[in-house]
């Protein structure tokens, strides 16, 4: 056996040597012949100056370098007709390789930050209502600037929303109009909004003019043409979509189990021919008329009867039996198949109705996919696997369904309920790309309160915000800073402001006291202030306006702020109890004086009331605890118009703060127990008695309510009947068993 192996090895080695000598000899003879030819050429005066003969010759030589924006065809050998070249120049794909690093000038944003300029409207140019709403949202935002030299981003006043040539909203000669803009610069640092592109029969994504290096905020954009971290995919919304505010989601309470009457529903058009017809034509295979109700109609368009098939009459009859709204509100899942374009109005309708969207639109780049994790709110299906959809959704656990439904409501109210939110989300995404070092992370975008209310300029650490303590495993702050707003001169040592200062300083949770001196008189001497166990810092307000009490002062070293008016009467026990309550609700306002709002049907406006009832929607900041982040949000999020109104009236700053906090949290403030004499004591103070009794003061607050509600686009305040009392409060037990016993004694 061993001998056979040896013979086999020797035979193999011999064969290899023979082959080696054979091929080596060929190579040697070829090189000798080549050297002879070169020698012969040199004798005849023929010299080769190219060094290419030193390198192996490959069949496909490397192509010469061409700038990326000139690569119109992948195959250079295929001839391109003049028409194809013209079409290519007008296509959105010419800048397909654009990214922020190659097609955006970051230097424009370094000096003045993220500012957006809107071109002035040109005479004779018509703008559709939807595009007017987009421009109005930009001009009303904190990003807007009317000075193009300060702008980082530019938005056209030319209506680019509807680029379907058959649409009455289509703007002709847009290419020449855009090219004539002196700031166009081949689209660099420009943002173009678009909802509809292409036309019958193929509905391409061509917007009909050369966008150059501009970014697209586009609906129904495909993943193939979407330029990651450059374009922004936006939802398709109707012309009736509200400009600001918007309706709340339809999920009023969490039903357990979370199943509804219908498991899966759809009601919409069926296209008999052309793009987008395949999926909707096949829905009847899944429809069972019981818990899976998928209805289509071919009764649309002028000449639908010419193209109708054998199913049309039956489908139309079934279609008329069901009410769409009733189906939407009583379904667990809503099918969102593609139409002529990838996007559909059904998407936003399903989100609002807390009906989990089941996406059937292969290749659609979902809205704001750069920041939103749609796996938490939708089921991403495949058009090719339509028949598997019912069994797939039936296999989803009830806990998952409830989580999906809750996330639809959060996303709807955070980013999609109004044109303003869609526009602001688009701008915030672009701003995060520019300033990556302070950009929001996925947790911020996909958790309450959402990316629009989290300003990353405040802090890059989530623990500095009041919404993520549970996510980070942190405990709320253990100390607070008392900020006392002083507006009257200090003339007596018995003034309420000094008593208040001493009471707050005695609290075991007090870290420091800041007196904001907004009085016209000079600052009192240091010896006029009482001695306290904690530092007392007196800040003189520069502008001495009401909004200055909510400025984000660097002197505030704690996350918790106890806001106090100078004439507030509180004991140390009350302060301690209010702070312990706030530690359980760090995102809300917690305090004592409560007020409420109501809708006045006779005047058709919002009303303000200070009546002491069991119902409230505001806790005034004259005696309240909240997170200091709201100082930053008040200063940098709210528009100057509202703050100027507050300063001119010297009123309503507490109402505006309640509006802001309720808009962020979607929750009411929390009222805590107060002593019996609180009402009489407050109204008895001389420094504020005239203010509260002044009828103009009350009328101003009524007016403020409606102005604030108009800016927010809805009424963010929520009513509550909850009051938190200390344990054993009012119980018939020994006072020694009660921790906050002084509250009952006063």
UniProtKB/TrEMBL annotation:
Pinpoint the Glycosyl transferase domain residues. Answer: 480-729
The metabolic or biological pathway listed in the UniProt record of this protein is:
Protein modification; protein glycosylation
Q: Under which EC number(s) is this enzyme classified?
A: 2.4.1.225
Compartments in which it is found: Endoplasmic reticulum membrane; Golgi apparatus, cis-Golgi network membrane
What keywords are assigned to this protein?
Disulfide bond, Endoplasmic reticulum, Glycoprotein, Glycosyltransferase, Manganese, Membrane, Metal-binding, Signal-anchor, Transferase, Transmembrane, Transmembrane helix
| Reaction equations catalysed | 3-O-{alpha-D-GlcNAc-[(1->4)-beta-D-GlcA-(1->4)-alpha-D-GlcNAc](n)-(1->4)-beta-D-GlcA-(1->3)-beta-D-Gal-(1->3)-beta-D-Gal-(1->4)-beta-D-Xyl}-L-seryl-[protein] + UDP-alpha-D-glucuronate = 3-O-{[(1->4)-beta-D-GlcA-(1->4)-alpha-D-GlcNAc](n+1)-(1->4)-beta-D-GlcA-(1->3)-beta-D-Gal-(1->3)-beta-D-Gal-(1->4)-beta-D-Xyl}-L-seryl-[protein] + UDP + H(+)
Q: Could you tell me which Pfam families the record lists for this protein?
A: Exostosin_GT47, Glyco_transf_64
Identify the GO cellular component terms for this protein: catalytic complex; endoplasmic reticulum membrane; Golgi apparatus; synapse
A single GO molecular-function term is: protein heterodimerization activity
Q: What residue intervals traverse the membrane?
A: 7-28
Q: How does it sit in the membrane?
A: Single-pass type II membrane protein
Enzyme's top EC category = transferase
User: What are the Exostosin GT47 domain coordinates in residue numbering?
Assistant: 111-395
One GO BP on record is: BMP signaling pathway
Q: What is its main location?
A: endoplasmic reticulum
Q: How does it assemble?
A: Part of the heparan sulfate polymerase, a dimeric complex composed of EXT1 and EXT2. Could also form homooligomeric complexes. Interacts with NDST1.
Similarity comment text for this entry: Belongs to the glycosyltransferase 47 family.
Its job: Glycosyltransferase forming with EXT2 the heterodimeric heparan sulfate polymerase which catalyzes the elongation of the heparan sulfate glycan backbone. Glycan backbone extension consists in the alternating transfer of (1->4)-beta-D-GlcA and (1->4)-alpha-D-GlcNAc residues from their respective UDP-sugar donors.
- Please report the name of this protein according to its UniProt entry: Exostosin-1
Native organism: Vombatus ursinus
State the encoding gene. Answer: EXT1
């Amino acid at each position: 056996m061993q001998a056979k192996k040896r013979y086999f090895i020797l035979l193999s080695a011999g064969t290899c040597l023979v082959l080696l000598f054979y091929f080596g000899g060929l190579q040697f003879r070829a090189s000798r012949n080549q050297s002879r030819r070169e020698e012969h050429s040199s004798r005849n005066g023929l010299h080769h100056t190219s060094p290419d003969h030193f390198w192996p010759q490959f069949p496909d030589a490397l192509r010469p370098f061409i700038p990326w924006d000139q690569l119109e065809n992948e195959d250079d050998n295929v001839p391109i007709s003049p028409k194809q070249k013209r079409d290519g120049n007008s296509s959105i794909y010419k800048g397909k390789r654009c990214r922020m690093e190659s097609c955006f000038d970051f230097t424009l944003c370094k000096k003045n930050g993220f500012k957006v300029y809107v071109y002035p409207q040109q005479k004779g140019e018509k703008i559709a209502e939807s595009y007017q709403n987009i421009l109005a949202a930009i001009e009303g935002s904190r990003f807007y600037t009317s000075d193009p030299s300060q702008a980082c981003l530019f938005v056209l006043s030319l209506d680019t929303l509807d680029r379907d040539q058959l649409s009455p909203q289509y703007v002709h000669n847009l290419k020449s109009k855009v090219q004539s803009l002196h700031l166009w610069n081949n689209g660099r640092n420009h943002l173009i909004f678009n909802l509809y592109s292409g036309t019958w029969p193929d509905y391409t994504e061509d917007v009909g003019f050369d966008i150059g290096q501009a970014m697209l905020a586009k609906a129904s954009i495909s993943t193939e043409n979407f330029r990651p971290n450059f374009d922004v995919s936006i939802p398709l919304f109707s012309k009736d979509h509200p400009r600001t505010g918007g309706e709340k989601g339809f999920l009023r309470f969490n039903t357990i189990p979370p199943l509804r009457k219908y498991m899966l529903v759809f009601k919409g058009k069926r296209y008999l021919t052309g793009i987008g017809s395949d999926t909707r034509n096949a829905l009847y295979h899944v429809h069972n008329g019981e818990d899976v109700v998928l209805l289509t109609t071919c009764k649309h368009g002028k000449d639908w009867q010419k193209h109708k098939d054998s199913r049309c009459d039956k489908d139309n009859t079934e279609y008329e039996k069901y009410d769409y709204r009733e189906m939407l509100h009583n379904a667990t899942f809503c099918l969102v198949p593609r139409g002529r374009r990838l996007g559909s109005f059904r998407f936003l309708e399903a989100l609002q109705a807390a009906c989990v969207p089941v996406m059937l639109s292969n290749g659609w780049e979902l809205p704001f996919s750069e920041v939103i994790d749609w796996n938490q709110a939708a089921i991403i299906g495949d058009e090719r696997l339509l028949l598997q959809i019912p069994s797939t959704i039936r296999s989803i656990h009830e806990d998952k369904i409830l989580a999906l439904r809750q996330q639809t409501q959060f996303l709807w109210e955070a980013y999609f309920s109004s044109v303003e939110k869609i526009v602001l989300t688009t701008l915030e995404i672009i701003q995060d790309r520019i300033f990556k070092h302070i950009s929001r992370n996925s947790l911020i975008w996909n958790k309450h309160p959402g990316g629009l209310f989290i300003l990353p300029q405040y802090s890059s650490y989530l623990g500095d915000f009041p919404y993520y303590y549970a996510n980070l495993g942190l405990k709320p702050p253990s100390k607070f800073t008392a900020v006392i707003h002083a507006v009257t001169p200090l003339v007596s040592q018995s003034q309420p402001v000094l008593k208040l200062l001493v009471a707050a300083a005695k609290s075991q949770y007090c870290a420091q006291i800041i007196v904001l001196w907004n009085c016209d008189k000079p600052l009192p001497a240091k010896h006029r202030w009482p001695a306290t166990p904690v530092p007392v810092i007196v800040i003189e307000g520069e502008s001495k306006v009401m909004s200055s009490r909510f400025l984000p002062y660097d002197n505030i070293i704690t996350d918790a702020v106890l806001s106090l008016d100078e004439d507030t009467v509180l004991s140390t026990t009350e302060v301690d109890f209010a702070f312990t309550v706030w530690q359980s609700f760090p995102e809300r306002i917690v305090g004592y004086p409560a007020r409420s709002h109501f809708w006045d049907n006779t005047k058709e406006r919002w009303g303000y009331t200070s009546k002491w009832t069991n119902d409230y929607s505001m806790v005034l900041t004259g005696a309240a605890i909240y997170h200091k982040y709201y100082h930053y949000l008040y200063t940098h999020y709210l528009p100057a118009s509202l703050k100027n109104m507050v300063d001119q009236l010297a009123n309503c700053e507490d109402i505006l703060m309640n509006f802001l906090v309720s808009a962020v949290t979607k929750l009411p403030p929390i009222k805590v127990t107060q002593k019996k004499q609180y009402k009489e004591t407050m109204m008895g103070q001389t420094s504020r008695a005239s203010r509260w009794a002044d009828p103009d003061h009350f009328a101003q607050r009524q007016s403020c309510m409606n102005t604030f509600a108009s800016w927010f686009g809805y009424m963010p305040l929520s009513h509550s009947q909850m009051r938190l009392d200390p344990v054993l409060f009012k119980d018939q037990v020994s006072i020694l068993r009660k921790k906050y016993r002084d509250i009952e004694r006063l």
